[in-house]
Amino acid sequence: MTIVDRINAELAEKTRAAGMGFAGISVEPDYPGLEALARLVEAGQLRLHVARAFALAEAGEAHRFLSTGPAGKVVLVP
Question: 29: which of 3, 4, 5, 58 is 20 to 30 A away, CA to CA?
């Protein structure tokens, strides 16, 4: 899951070449929408790949890690 244009042909091609699915959807950042996404995750219907988690104090290192183009999300935790 990422935040990009719904129609991103380059990302779609790379994703499919890696054996993963790509679907462009638009979700408004509202409370009911976020709850619905959380339910999908909890039900195992939406899976997110976390490349690496960093402590919030390591935000600079996380930003540098992002520049390497990781396959997956980068997460900051308290």
Answer: 58
Paired strand residues for 73: 50
Tens digit of each residue's pLDDT (9 = 90 or more) over 20-53:
877 777 666 788 888 998 899 899 998 888 999 9
Cβ 75 vs Cβ 50: under 8 Å: yes
57 backbone φψ class: left, alpha, beta (φ>0; ψ -120 to 50): alpha
Helix or strand holding residue 66 (H, E): helix 59-66
- Rounded Cα–Cα distance for residues 68 and 44 (Å): 29
pTM of the model: 0.49
C-alpha distances in angstroms, 66 versus 1, 2, 33, 53, 62? 15, 13, 27, 11, 6
